[in-house]
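Human:
Care to share another protein and its fold?

Assistant:
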Amino acid sequence: MAKKIWITAAVTGAVHTPSLSPYLPITPEEIIEDAVKAYEAGAAVVHVHARDPKTGKPISDVKVMEKIVSGIKKRCNVIICVTTGGAIGMSLADRLAPIPALKPELASLNAGSINFVLSPMASTVQKNGAKHDWEIPYLEGTYDMIFPNTFYTFENYCTTMNEYQTRPELEVYDVAMINNIAYFLNKGVLKKPPYIQFVLGILGGLPATVEHLSYMVKYAKEQIGDFFWSCAAAGRYQFPLTATALAMGGNVRVGLEDNLYLGPGVLAKSSGEQVTRIKEIAERMGFESASPDEVRDEMGLKGKDNTGF
């Protein structure tokens, strides 16, 4: 039997807006439910953002995030990965705030700055009819905005995570970010082996192709040595590229943050549906999916009983 792979579900994110899908979870209760469905379908990890319960706009309210993560923890054993990417326009302090407050097992850490462009989706929202007045300006505003993740931010976030024994999940959108990781490993800020999430298909980052994923993994091995890794791909590239990652020996991320669809023209009703799909693909390839506790052991996570929620 090949090694066990682990599945992450990114359940809501800060990319899509409510008008793009009626199934996008908005309220804490909906986000909790989507996370639990993903766990029941086979996800070992869920990646969570918070949204305004009334408007669906991504927010940095730690109390809302605490309600979400504590609700998930009460209902299942899944590993909870808390975002520090936040959303467009959030301050660096707001993005980091959940770490000292909640002390999660796992948290995202973006490995470099990027043009993170969502503006093409504004035309779809206009076509569907915007449910909220913030949606179109939010999407269109990314055409003239940089998602900032400086070296200072990287070190500050990582140092804070180290203090609370939270493992960073390093989000990598482009090849240069691998150099950033190597720098902080050499400096001793990052602990070995690091955990990398390759995220492809974002406008402003590397396109979601087999060639790009293959090169990034190869280059990371050359620069870093041993590391854990997973792959996420935006939109219609989600399943083709995550299947490729499985064949290459990696782990996978699916979920409504990355892709609203289950297939061409078919909206996914939950992140759990996408987890079921990628788990079926993995099993047909001869892989078995790991449980949350198996992933905790493999990555050396501190355990859910040592979090702050």
Notes: The longest helix spans residues 210-224. The chain has a mean pLDDT of 97. The chain has one domain: 7-114+148-306.
